[in-house]
C-alpha cells in the first residue's frame, strides 16, 4: 500500500530506514550519536527505541572503525547502514572505503559482496564552519566499485535510500545538508529505480542545466527566472553520479544543443568536469556552444560569511547560460 | 572506572610450555596439550616449513612475484588455525599464507595473489578465511564486524585476527581493539611480534612494556606467549578462543617470534640487522624443539610435506591465460553501461590484434 505524507528530506530518510529495518532484519544502523539522540540531523530518530540497541547503536568515535566493522558485518550476512557525521569527518574512513568497501567484490571475483550504505551529510549552504561543508563526491565517484548517489527531493531521498539498502553493491549516499528541511508530499512505498537513472526535473527547449544534490534547486530557480525572461531551460537532476546515466543526460543535451553544469564542488578534476567531457565526447555534433560550468572556486570551503561568494547562485548560472553563444545561432 | 586492571595485564614473561631445548617447563601453570594434538601440530609445522621454503624457491624461479615467508613463525601460523572450529573465521595478513593453508585453503589458490593471476585466489566463505590483507591492520575492523554480526545472530563463531608488530602502530589496530572491547565481540587478536617491520625494529614502533600490554587500555586482557612454542600457543590461543566463544569478549595475544628471512625476497636484511642476531634464533626453532620433545624423527612427516610442495609447484608452474572479460565482471554486481562499453572496446581491440597477426 502506498502512503502519501508531507515530509522533510530528513524525515523521508528516517522513514526509509524504518521501513527497510522493518522489512529486512539484517539491516542494521550505526555510527556516532545515531542512537538515543537520533543523529545530529535526526535522520535516525527513534530507531533505537523502535528496533532496539542491536539494530541501531552508537559506536566509539572512529570512522575507519565504523566503516571497517560494517565491512565485516556485510561479509557476514548483514546490511549495515552507517552514518558519517559530516562530509569532512568521513576522511578517516577513506582507506577502508577505497581499499576494501570498493574492492572486495573485485578482489574475490564476486564471491564476497558488500551490501552496505555509507550515509554522508555533505555540501554547504547552511553557514557551517570549516570541515562541515565539503563537497566530497569526486573522491568517491573516482573510485571504481562504489555507487554514489545524492537526492535533491524528499521523495528521491526515500526511494534512493530504500534502493541503496537493497543494493548488492556498496553505496555512498550523499545527503545535501541544506535540503534536509525542505518538505514535500512524499510517496512512501515502492518507487521506480533511481540508481543509475537521471531525471528531467523541468522541461525546456533552449538549453539544459545539469545538476545534482544541493545544486538542483538552484538550477530550477534559474530556469524559473529565465522563463520569465523568455528563455526555456531544461533541468536534469543526476540523482546517481555512479552509475552515470549517459543516456538521459545526452538525450537532454541533444534536445537543446546547449548545456551548463551546476555543482558546488571545486571545478578542477571534478564530477562537473567529467560530465562536460562525457557529454562533449558523445554530443559534439549536437552542441551549438561549448558546455559551461558553474562550480565552486578551487579553494578550501570558505567561512560562513564568504560562502555566498563561493556557491553557484542563480545569477551565476544565468550568466553562464547567456554565454552559450546565442548570437551565432 | 572499572576497578582492578591487573587481570588485564599479561604475564611478566611469555608463556612457554616447551623450552628451546625441547624440555617441558616446570611450573608453567598450564597443562601441556596432549601428545596427539602435538603430533598433529608437528605434522603441520613440517608441511608449513616446506611450503614456505617451496614458495621462496618459486620466487627465484620467477613463478611468484615475491613471497613474504613465515619461515620460523610457523608455530604461530599453525596454532592460530588449529584452535579454530569449522564455523570460525581467520583473518590473515600477507605473511599468513600457511595459516590459511592449514585452515584448508588450497596452497595454489593461497598464492594466486603473488602469482599474479588475480587478487584473492580462494572463496573466503569456503573455509572462512578472509582475503590476505596487505594494507596494514585494515583487516582487524573487518574481523570485529564478522564477529559482531555472528553474535547478533546468536551464532557461536569466533574470529582469529592476525597482525604483525608493525601493524599495531596503525590506527585501525586501535580502532578495532576498541570496537571489539565495547561490542564484546568474540575476536582473538594475535600479534606475531617478529621484531621487525621490514627494516624497522620494534623499539622504533612502540615504547609500551610489551605489545600485549596494549590491551589494558581497551579493557581487553593481554597475554604474551613464546611464539616458537606451539604447545604454549595452542594452550593460550585455545583458551582465548574458548573464552570468546563463551561470551567473555575479545583477547589480545602477543607471540614472541622472529622473522628468520628477509621481509620478502625483494628485501636485503643485511642492511639493517646482523646475521648474528638471526643465528641466535636458530636454536629456538619451533620444529626442532617439538620433535625433541615428542622424540619423533621429522622424516616421519616428510612425505605429506613433499606431496603438498609438489602440488604447489605443479599449480604454480601451470600458466593460466588471463581472461580479459574478468577485468570488468566483478566491479559491481552487474557491470554498468560504461563498463560494458569498455569491455566491448577491449574485446574489439584484442580481436583486431589477433586478426593483424
Ligand atoms: C598501510 C600500509 N603501510 C605500509 C605498508 C608497506 N608494508 C608492508 S609490510 C610492512 C611491514 C609490516 O610489519 P609487521 O606488521 O611487523 O608485519 P611483518 O611483515 O613483520 O609480518 C610495511 C611497512 C602496507 N602494506 N600498508
Ligand atoms: Mg613484524
Summary keywords:
heterodimer, A: 329 residues, alpha/beta, Rossmann fold, 2 domains, 7-stranded mixed sheet, 5-stranded mixed sheet, globular, B: alpha/beta, 5-stranded parallel sheet, 14 helices, 7 strands, 43% helix, binds thiamine diphosphate, binds magnesium ion
Write a structural description.
The complex is a heterodimer of chains A (329) and B (357). Chain A is built from twelve helices and 14 strands. In chain A, helix 3 (63-75) packs parallel to helix 4 and helix 9 (246-256) crosses helix 10. Chain A folds into two domains: 3-188, Thiamin diphosphate (ThDP)-binding fold, Pyr/PP domains (Rossmann fold), CATH 3.40.50; 199-323, Rossmann fold (3-Layer(aba) Sandwich), CATH 3.40.50.920. Chain A has helices at residues 9-23, 47-51, 63-75, 94-101, 104-107, 137-141, 154-166, 216-228, 246-256, 271-283, 307-310, 314-322; strands at 3-8, 27-31, 56-58, 79-83, 117-122, 147-149, 171-176, 183-188, 199-202, 207-211, 233-237, 240-242, 259-266, 292-296. With 329 residues, chain A is of the alpha/beta class. A seven-stranded mixed sheet of chain A has the order 3-2-4-5-7-6-12, with helices on both faces. A five-stranded mixed sheet of chain A has the order 9-11-10-13-14, with helices on both faces. A two-stranded antiparallel sheet of chain A has the order 1-8. Chain B has 357 residues and is α/β, with parallel strands linked by helices. Chain B folds into two domains: 6-317, 3-Layer(aba) Sandwich (Rossmann fold), CATH 3.40.50; 326-356. Chain B has helices spanning 35-60, 74-82, 97-102, 107-110, 112-115, 124-127, 139-152, 171-183, 230-245, 275-282, 286-294, 302-317, 326-329, 337-356; strands spanning 89-91, 159-164, 187-193, 196-197, 200-201, 222-226, 251-256. In chain B, strand 2 (159-164), helix 8 and strand 3 form a beta-alpha-beta unit. In chain B, helix 2 (74-82) runs parallel beside helix 9 (230-245). The termini of chain B are far apart. The model of chain B has no long low-confidence stretch (mean pLDDT 96). Bound molecules: thiamine diphosphate (TPP) and magnesium ion. The site of magnesium ion has 6 residues of chain B, from strand 4.
